[in-house]
Amino acid sequence: MDIQWVALDWGTTNLNAYAIGADGRITGQLHNNMGMSQLVSSEFEPVLVEAIGPWLSADRVMPVLACGMVGAHEGWRDAGYSDAPCLPVDRKTTVSVPTDDPRLSVRIVPGVCQRQPEDVMRGEETQIAGYLARNPNFDGVFCLPGTHSKWARVADGKIQNFTTFMTGELFGLLTKQSVLRFSTTSHDWDDGAFLGGVKAAMSDPDRLTAQLFAARPRTLLSGTPNEVLKAHLSGLLIGAEIAALREMWRAGDIVIIGDRENARLYQTALATLDISPQVYDSARAIIDGLRPLAQVSAQTPEPV
Amino acid sequence: MDIQWVALDWGTTNLNAYAIGADGRITGQLHNNMGMSQLVSSEFEPVLVEAIGPWLSADRVMPVLACGMVGAHEGWRDAGYSDAPCLPVDRKTTVSVPTDDPRLSVRIVPGVCQRQPEDVMRGEETQIAGYLARNPNFDGVFCLPGTHSKWARVADGKIQNFTTFMTGELFGLLTKQSVLRFSTTSHDWDDGAFLGGVKAAMSDPDRLTAQLFAARPRTLLSGTPNEVLKAHLSGLLIGAEIAALREMWRAGDIVIIGDRENARLYQTALATLDISPQVYDSARAIIDGLRPLAQVSAQTPEPV
């Protein structure tokens, strides 16, 4: 097994690690729930060594490139932020993390922050860099769905500005913890209801907190099925996100970086505006975003 | 102790009972957390008898008038709904609840529903009836803050239409269960920040889910104090509610029915529009709303 370097997408809840071979392909990967929120600073190295130990060899230093909440203040080491407008990833600003294990050369990518209005990202900047590595002249907008969805305007190879929405976290809270949980238990899905929610939010975006509640009376008064109400709720939240960004998605092409299911939902929602965004897999984006740093690290390994 | 009747505000989480004397004044009251969500149908009577037992006497039947979730499908007895437009409380539609205890004559007020768009209330209709009992010619709008805030347009003595917002429940979820909980722990309060949130939501109502998230980067980037972010969050949610109702609060005078703290927040928010709503205490509203039914019941007690 010829592993050249290791890519880490180390977030709040999960660790995703990829072993990259000489041909640039993924030769191994692992996913566990040892996310930042589970760990104190001193626990990151042993967790990492246990996870990727089989990929390490005694006779060389393995470049390990990481992005995500691993670089937060509460993470392994605070990698700080780059101020937008800025390159999404800049090899000069990555932060080296000293390790006890001499087989490791770990670097963490800083997040990106925006001062006005204040906003932050950690991990998404690396996904954007991954797309730009293959499309250096891209001028447009990235949509990165998730717990905290990000929309980022990119031009001249730089993140110009971005906005975060609580879409994914609100959907989780509303369907699991609020009175709406009794209306959204279904594991099925109704695409028509999702589209109805998108259109309702986009046509009346300032009534969101009332539109959200409507799932409750629709259950009580007309017994609307849960799969309809759950999909409609998702549509309302994604539609509100898109409605808030009219000027942004009019600014250029849109690229969605996300997993298949999230990408599909945002594609469906944007189709109502006759927008056909390109979709780019988020894991691939992470690896493509970290690769240039790995090549540097391989040439000039950290002293250990 | 001369108790003529008993008023019950029996909601999802609490039971509030008031003993009303011959002079119409409150001669006793009790409040506990034996709300509808804690009880199955058969448990309501024993819980009530234990609570108000000291107010009962063997030689007469006590009229007990109740409103709230006690009349929900999952409550003591399903009192159904009146369809808006309708009288908020109509003595002809109250539902009698048979009891084992011969000292009780229990009636429950139906909720009010709206078919298009679908919405429901239970308890608020009685508070509105309480205000109308003293102001029969009122033509305007009621604001009833709470877990699920209600705004109701009233004319000709009837609830014409109403809208529910998840304001209170969202505030609770965001400050206790979301990533924002790390930014909103303070027990202090900043009125200026609250007003800032109200104005931000009203000037940009379609960006709510992005505006909510901003508390997180404001903590990370500028260490904005928690009491500022918590008050700002409350202002955003209440401001979004008011922004969604422009046509409603332009329709006439506004009366806020709520507890002192909620009333103060909505007064402060509405003051930004040069609106000075009247405030009416919610407990008093319940009693005034149930009183006419009690008088009927006293004249024609239910057979027991």
UniProtKB/TrEMBL annotation, chains A, B:
Alphabetical list of InterPro entries matching this protein: DGOK, DGOK_C, DGOK_N
GO terms assigned for molecular function: 2-dehydro-3-deoxygalactonokinase activity
Gene3D superfamilies: 2-keto-3-deoxy-galactonokinase, C-terminal domain, 2-keto-3-deoxy-galactonokinase, substrate binding domain
GO biological process: D-galactonate catabolic process
Protein name (database record): 2-dehydro-3-deoxygalactonokinase
Species the sequence originates in: Harenicola maris
